Amino acid sequence: MSSPPIRVLHVNAGREWRGGQNQTRLLVRELAAFSSVSTTLITRRHSELAARVRRDAPGIELREVPWGPAVDLRALWEMRRALIEVRPAIVHAHEAHALRLALWARRLAGLASLRVIATRRVDFHARFGSAWFRADLIIAISQAVRGILIGDGVPAERIRVVASGIDPGEVRRAAARPLDIRGRLGLAPTAPLAVHVAALVAHKDQQTLVRAAAAARTLAPDLHWVVAGEGEFRARLEAQIARLGLRDRVHLLGYVRESDALIAEGNVFVMSSKEEGLGTVVLHALALGKPVVATRGGGIPEMLPSESLVPIGDADALARKVASVLAFPQADASLLPSQFTARSMAHGVLAVYQSVV
Predict the structure, then answer these.
(1) How far apart are CA 238 and CA 147, in angstroms?
(2) Phi/psi of residue 150, each to 5°?
(3) What pTM was computed for the model?
(4) Is the pLDDT of residue 3 over 90?
(5) CA distance 146 to 150
(6) Which residues contact 306 (CB under 8 A, 6 or more apart)?
(7) What value does the mean pLDDT of the chain take?
(8) Which neighbouring-strand residues pair with 196?
(9) 44, 49, 259, 327: which could join 67 in a potential S-S bond, CB 3.0 to 4.6 Å?
(10) What pLDDT is recorded for position 331?
(11) Are 322 and 216 in contact (CB under 8 A)?
């Protein structure tokens, strides 16, 4: 006689559509294929995460709740009700807001035996005494994240490492429709492109990327750099680009929904992060067969060979490495390691569930 499925309530505030929300979508979709687990997702009403899960994983029980900033009392009440109605063995929180809500809801529902698991996707330091220290178990998406947590005082036995993953077939299908970014920018059809996709925030360190573009002028005179993403650093980057005379070489595109198509049209993918939990956009580039040049920030070295990496903040090294890749392209040099697929991630997370129930 088979055991009943493990009931898991996933929680993600879903305030914006970024890598963490996409990882939640992929995980619940993949877990839906396993009879050993029953999945419910709570997220913000009318969020992009809710819309995509409804489209891609129609078998998942989806609960959309009103959820404003921080710990919203309406969301807390709905979470408490879900705990009572679903009776999960595990609550899996996918970001900090969700974790705080889960811990409060467990207390209000009087379910002291309920296990609260949280996924940690960033390699920032965890403030001592924060909710991360009260989770029963933390799933770190890389060894780099695990190391930061241990250094901050989280006991090693309360941390498991399960790498983030992507669906390479989905990525390739999304990239199949041409974006014609060269035509949109008025560039020659053969103009070499270095592509970067990330939020314009401090830890992504696009300022180093812009300095690399300046350094690359003499190394690869025809090279253009396209940056897809929005964020608080946009005005600062625009000023830096103007100051260095790079308006004809560095193109800030803003948010690009068809980011996989953009990556596919580039010659090389570039990451300049100072800190990075893992950086799943790198996996998208690998799935599309693109060479990657990146800094050694956070978990990035766990995905790439050493010859693809440069020191953090070293714009000259970044420029030289990109120019070298353009000058000496290698066929089939970029391959997606099998441990970074969504299915592999789901198997790893299921093993964590089974270990705590």
Answers:
(1) 35
(2) -65, -45
(3) 0.93
(4) no
(5) 6
(6) none
(7) 94
(8) 227
(9) 44
(10) 53
(11) yes
What is the H or E stretch that residue 108 is in? helix 96-109
Going across the sheet that includes 193-197, the strands are 250-254, 224-228, 193-197, 268-271, 292-295, 309-310
CB 20 within 8 A of CB 12: yes
Would you state the structure tokens that stand for residue 199, as one six-digit string?
A: 């939020």
Give, for 11, the enclosing helix (H) or strand (E): strand 6-12
Structural domains of the chain, with CATH? 6-165+341-356 (3.40.50.2000), 168-337 (3.40.50.2000)
In the block, which residue shows the tokens 């953009």? 262
329-338: average pLDDT = 71
* DSSP annotation string for 230-269: --TTHHHHHHHHHHTT-TTTEEEEE--TTHHHHHHHSSEE
- For residue 144, what pLDDT is reported? 96
Q: Identify residue 102 by its one-letter amino acid code.
A: A
N-to-C CA span, the chain: 18
